Amino acid sequence: MISFYYFMLGASIASFYFLVAFRLPLGQPIGFSRSKCDSCQKTLDATELIPIFSFLFNHGRCRYCQVNLSLAYPLFELCGATITLFLFHSYSGKSLLINGLLYSILFLMAAIDYHHLFIPDSLQIALFLLLFADPYNHRSLLGAVLFLIVSIFSSYLVKDGLGGGDVKLLVISGFYFGYLTTTKLLLLAASLALSYFLVKKQEKLIPFAPYLTFAFFITKEFFVSR
């Protein structure tokens, strides 16, 4: 029962972050306005705000205008729920607080990139400072420099390649993990993004931060020795 509580807590936080990520860069209010359907602008009631389950109950559609809702909503909520459940079962005390803050920053970066295709510098700075204070930080200047060079070259060689926010996130990851581990992180993120591209077959720009964020979580929690 407690695991289900953690799961729903994480899904609710993720749902709120997803909303904040959409509204904040546009200067829209966050805390004092009701959620509405993006298509018909109908105000949603409480039963339509239950993370993950409301999407399933309504078969992925708005109850009022029947427009198909983006699968990103339940996917982001599911990721938030899974990460929160993992954190509560893996950490406690100060470590739980720090890692919760870490993944909150990464989640906001991923969600803002998904909605608006950019990552705020303020979040990049906050992430760097938090990781710099981590006692497990390898603090690899070489890793940061190498990924900065690789990212700059890729931006010149590949049209519509890595964006500036993605470059900064990779440089921070290189500083934190070192260049070898960050290379694996990048390959994992690229594989996930490529899989999505092949399934959706979209020609438009793909936000890369969500894949980098998920790869960061997998790398940090499962591939880095403590």
TrEMBL record:
Residues 9-89 form the Prepilin peptidase A24 N-terminal domain. It is a multi-pass membrane protein. One of its GO terms (molecular function) is aspartic-type endopeptidase activity. The chain crosses the membrane at residues 6-26, 71-91, 140-158, 170-198. The keyword Transferase does not apply. Belongs to the peptidase A24 family. InterPro entries: Prepilin_IV_endopep_pep, Prepilin_pept_A24_N, Prepilin_peptidase/N-MTase. It comes from the Bacteria. One of its GO terms (cellular component) is plasma membrane. Keywords: Cell membrane, Membrane, Transmembrane, Transmembrane helix. It is found in: Cell membrane. GO terms for biological process: signal peptide processing. The keyword Oxidoreductase does not apply. Residues 101-197 form the Prepilin type IV endopeptidase peptidase domain. Its main location: membrane. This is Type 4 prepilin-like proteins leader peptide-processing enzyme. It comes from Jeotgalibaca dankookensis.
